[in-house]
Amino acid sequence: AVRVTIRATDDSVPPVLLKLMEEQLSQGVSTLPDPVVAPTPRDISDVFSSIMVVSDTDRMSRMPS
Fold first, then answer.
1. pLDDT of residue 9
2. What is the DSSP string of 20-47?
3. Which residues are CB-contacts of 53 (< 8 A; sequence separation ≥ 6)?
4. Structural domain boundaries of the chain?
5. In this predicted structure, what is the pLDDT of residue 26?
6. pLDDT band at residue 4 under the 50/70/90 scheme
7. Considering only CA atoms, which of 22, 31, 35 is closest in space to residue 4?
8. Is 48 exposed, middle or buried (0-12, 13-18, 19+ CB in 10 A)?
9. Residue of higher predicted confidence among 40 and 53
10. CA–CA gap between residue 59 and residue 7 (Å, rounded)
11. Chain centroid to CA 20
12. d(CA 37, CA 22)
């Protein structure tokens, strides 16, 4: 898939990009960005469940002498 975002005047856009956009529009391809879906509380919980927090005391006891 090709995603092109153009914020310029027609004069500054290369003809090949204009042609690509015209073809996509004629085929009904959306030129809008994909919607962003926020993570669910469960997703966040799952990601952070594998993190281990080590106290300073534990950290010091694991350091080589």
1. 66
2. HHHHHHHTT---SPPPP-PPPHHHHHHH
3. none
4. 10-62
5. 84
6. low
7. 31
8. exposed
9. 40
10. 52
11. 23
12. 28
d(CA 19, CA 31): 13
Residue whose token pair is 């975002």: 5
Core vs surface per residue 4-24: b (16+ CB within 10 A) or e = eeeeeeeeeeeeeeeeebeee
Query: Measured between alpha carbons, how far is 2 from 23 in angstroms, rounded to an integer?
Result: 12
- Banded pLDDT at 8 (limits 50, 70, 90): low
- Stretch 27-54: mean pLDDT, rounded? 81
User: Are 40 and 47 spatial neighbours (Cβ–Cβ below 8 Å)?
Assistant: no
Task: Specify whether the CB–CB gap between 4 and 17 falls below 8 A.
Answer: yes
First to last CA, the chain: 56
